[in-house]
Structure formats: C-alpha cells, structure tokens
Amino acid sequence: MKTIFRSLSAVILLVLLVVVSYTQEAKNTTKVESKLEIGQINGASFRIDLPENWNKGLVMYCHGYEVSGRPRRNLDSPQTKALVETFLSRGFAIAQSEYSTQGWAVKEAIEDTESLRRYFVSKYGQPKETYITGHSMGAMISISTIERYPDIYDGAMPMCGPLNPSIVGLKERVFDMLVMFDYFFPNTIASPANLMMDNKLNTDVIEKIRAALTANPEKAAMFAKHYQISTVIELAGVLTFFHEILRELQQRTGGNPFDNHNTIYSGFEDDVAVNRGVKRYTANAKAAEYMRQYYTPTGRISDPVLTIHTTYDPLVLGKDVTIYDSTSKISGSGDLFIAKFVVAKGHCNINPQQTGAAFDNLLMWVHEHKRPLAGELQ
User: Fold this and answer.
1) Structural domains counted in the chain
2) Are 19 and 133 contained in the same domain?
C-alpha cells in the first residue's frame, strides 16, 4: 500500500497547476482590501475579486487540467488567494470560472470564460482594459480565447502550457509515450487506443506501472531519460497522469483521436526493432476532428502575448510552448509573441513574484509599446 500512496502523491503533485510555491511566497505579497463574489453561470462556478481601488482593468484567469469526476478546485485555497493577490495588488479585478465540466474541457472553458466576462461587464461595467491568463491547459484556453476574441482583449499571458496543436502535442507527449511504454513494458496497461473503460487513476494502474518500472530499472532509466523526465519515480506519476488524460479524451471524443502509422520513432537503442515492433493505431475520425477543433492555434493575434515556462517541466516540454513563435510568424504576427523562462523545476512552478513580474512586462508592452526581451524573466 505504501507504494500506492507514493504514486498517488506523485500524481497529485503533478496535477497541481499552481504549485506550493504560491503558498510559500504569498506571505510576501501585500494584502489589499477587496470585494469577493462567488456564484454560478450555466453550471460553472465562478469567483470574482475586485480591489478597493479598482483601476478598471480586468484579468480573466483560466485554470488547468482537473481530473474529471474528482472534487473541483478550492476557490478559497491559499494558492488561489496568492494568485488573486498578484493582480489585486496591481489594481486589477480578476475573474475565474471553474468550467461546467472537467478533463480536457477546452471547449467548455472557452465558452464559460466568455460567459463570465460578459456577466462581469453587465454587473461592474466595461473595463478599460482586459487580459487573459492561465496555467497549463489554461494557457491553451488563453491562446484560443485571444485568437477568437481579438477585439475584447488587450493582451494574454499563457503560463506553462502547450501552445501547439492539441492533436499533435497530446499525441507526441501523451499518446506516443504510452505507446512506447506498452512496447518496452508489455502487458502492463491496456491498449493506449482503448482506455475508455478503465477506471479513473485507479490504484491498480498505478501499481502496475510502478511494478514494471521497478522490475526493469535500467530500461526504466532509459525511458525516463528519453522523455526528459528526471527520475523514475517521477516517470511513474507522469505515466499514470497521462493514462488518465488519454482515457478521458477517448471517453470525451468517442474514440482514439491519434494515429501513429506515419510515426518513425527515434532516439532509442535499437530504432529498427522499435519501429518494426511498435503497435500501430488508426485514429477515430470523429475523435480526431474534435481534437483539431479544441484546439489548433492559428497564430493570428492582434495583441501582445507573453508566455512563461520553467526550465524543467516533466509534463509540458519547452518546445511545446515556444512552437507558437513559429505559428505566429507564419501568420504574420510574430512580433506580438514573446517567450520568457524562469529557472525552476516542476510543472507551473512559477511563484507570485515571477507571475507579477511577467504581467508587469506585458503591461509595459501594451501601455508603452516596449516589446520585452525574450529569455530569462528578471
């Protein structure tokens, strides 16, 4: 049972999209008096915070992936309060929807965030400027929202999230990793193309993955290194979390969205054997189309977008963030995108001070038309 609890703890730590550093750093954040409203719109709970000296600016916040069927995020948690304080201390109101469903809820999140924004305007008036931000999957939602509503937003700050087409990024990082895990550790998990009936993050799946990795330490170390994951213990948590993401995606879309017939796997000890022996899967057309819609970034932006990422993230690789640089350049708006990094380990391990500094950079860009330099966030 101890191994089960250790694995569960690893998964829970990976799923946290605003990490413990927010709680630790919150003590250093200046408190401001604010007005709080909590309610619900179309089945989606929301939280709105307004500072006493509101500058008429609004930040819409989009949270990241939450495991479907589990208790929703605590709108009054220390992490949420620290995040809120980052924007309140700068005079901005902040509004956040919990979405009407969880899992890969990009579609619902876009709609629920826009419904909340409209509600805010109807009750508190039209802001003089509006920004959108979010962690992890919330970064994807931020990008999709500012692309969809360019006249509403003045800028976006997606954090630690995949900014590549979902059908590509989730295939390469989630589906392909599980396909290769099935190749190197056969009969450990169900077919990656047919996880719909598996239970959510059940201890049986967790324990089987850990047992397979423990029984083959050299192979496990090779696998972790190949997928840029620092430890085998962390690898077990990543694989379990990705197993749940893929299961929920298949259930949501009605089938397997990913096809690997044209994938040539490389970087292993014997790539010939790998490509001859790996199982190939055909995508369900309806499921694939859903993933193309939610979401494929166009790169067409008319407002500044500044993204931040940690130097080590086991869930979202840096290339999945900075690929938006190419996307925006192809669309002709590359001068409106900047990627910055913080030296930190972990998914979304960006503290309130770093978040505030990045937001200040974005505000300077919008207000003074001074484009920040790419690179490390100072």
Assistant:
1) 2
2) yes
- The side-by-side arrangement of strands in the sheet containing 44-51 is 34-41, 44-51, 92-97, 57-62, 129-135, 155-159, 305-312, 337-345, 375-376
- The CATH number linked to 83 is 3.40.50.1820
List the domain range (segments joined by +) for residue 111: 14-164+295-376
**Model pTM?**
0.90
- Residue 4 in domain: no
Question: Which residues, 6 or more positions from 149, have their beta carbon under 8 angstroms from its beta carbon?
Answer: 114
Residues 224 and 235 in one domain: yes
Q: Are residues 128 and 170 both part of a single domain?
A: no
pLDDT tens per residue, the chain (378 residues)?
434 334 444 444 444 333 334 433 433 344 556 799 999 999 999 999 999 999 999 999 999 999 876 656 666 677 788 999 999 999 999 999 999 999 999 999 999 999 999 999 999 999 999 999 999 999 999 999 999 999 999 999 999 999 999 999 999 999 999 999 999 999 999 999 998 765 555 668 889 999 999 999 999 999 999 999 999 999 999 999 999 999 999 999 999 999 999 999 999 999 999 999 999 999 999 999 999 999 999 999 999 999 999 999 999 999 999 999 999 999 999 999 999 999 999 999 999 999 999 999 999 999 999 999 999 998
Asked, for residue 8, whether it belongs to a domain, the answer is: no
CA–CA dist 121, 58 (Å, integer)? 10
